[in-house]
Design a protein that fits this description.
Elements (H helix, E strand, L loop, with lengths): L6 E5 L4 H12 L3 E6 L8 E5 L5 H12 L7 E4 L5 E2 L7 H29 L2 E6 L12 H21 L4 E7 L3 E2 L2 H4 L1 E2 L10 H14 L2 E2 H12 L7 E3 L2 H12 L2 H12 L2
Parallel strand pairs: 1-2, 1-4, 2-3, 4-6, 5-9, 6-7, 7-11, 8-10
Helix pairs in contact: 1-7, 2-3, 3-4
Length: about 270
């Protein structure tokens, strides 16, 4: 029997921002589905085992959900991970995996959900991006690229589906304290050649993350903006990071690059 409450589907909802968002939507009375590969159990959150990089598995998972609910009101794409290391020494398979999970994983789920939202002529999609999309971080290049791709994708897609009353937005957290830090795949090959700069950069990033905003704050932020009548194309979470993004747009690029180099590439 199909449920009549609002429905939110969240990828990567078993940890970090995804789990925090799932809890926030649950508190708002939504029927919540988590799509993730890991085993997961949380009272009130419906878990569907799904690898977002597998298009057929994604389609099957979305079809399963639509047999249980009357509509898909909200999609939040949070599934992702990070790699770190020098571009010169990053294995190509690792770089491709980074893009496959973070970007094409997002694409797969949105493609599967769009037909349902288009037929019901409404829906809201929020993709978790990163401030690194606007301010790329050295030695975290491929992660930055994957998030930049999400921003471009969102901006273009939003105009494609606007006539169907579907809204698409990207949310950019800054440093955030989650299990993401420990899950990052770090490659220190070439650190001697780069005179220890890879290690120093990663240590600086991890220190900032461990002292960053909470996942709960980010999750509540996402659940709050969904209630807005009209979503903005891109949101930045936190005043400090809003300021950073603003300055990155108004300052000369050489100054922005010099600041980033001082923080993460010295």
């Amino acid at each position: 029997m199909k449920t009549q409450t609002n429905t939110a589907i969240i990828t990567g909802g078993s940890s970090g921002i995804g789990l925090a968002a799932a809890k926030a939507f649950l508190d708002k009375g939504y029927t919540v589905y988590n799509l993730s590969r890991r085993d997961f159990s949380y009272n009130g959150i419906n878990h569907v085992h799904c690898d977002v990089t597998d298009e057929s598995e994604v389609i099957s998972s979305i079809n399963k959900i639509t047999k249980e609910v009357s509509c898909i009101d909200v999609l939040i794409t949070c599934a992702g991970f990070g790699i770190a290391g020098a571009v010169e020494f990053t294995y190509l398979e690792d770089a491709k995996r980074q893009i496959d999970v973070n970007f094409f994983g997002t694409v797969n789920v949105i493609k599967a959900v769009l037909p349902y939202m288009r037929n019901q002529r409404e829906g809201k999609i929020v993709c978790v991006s990163s401030v690194a999309a606007e301010i790329p971080i050295p030695f975290q290049t491929y992660y930055s690229v994957s998030k930049s791709a999400i921003n471009s994708y969102v901006l273009a897609l939003a105009n494609e589906v606007k006539s169907f009353n579907i809204q698409v937005s990207a949310v950019m957290p800054g440093d955030i304290a989650t299990g993401f830090t420990n899950a990052r795949k770090t490659n220190l090959i070439g650190d001697d050649i780069y005179e220890g700069r890879i290690t120093r950069s990663i240590q600086s990033m991890e220190k900032d993350e461990l002292n960053g905003m909470s996942a709960d704050y980010a999750g509540r932020f996402i659940s709050k903006i969904i209630e807005k009548k009209n979503l903005k194309p891109i949101y930045t979470i936190g005043f400090k990071y809003k300021l950073f993004v603003f300055l990155s747009k108004v300052l000369p690029q050489r100054i922005v690059s010099a600041i980033v180099a001082f923080l993460y590439a010295k």
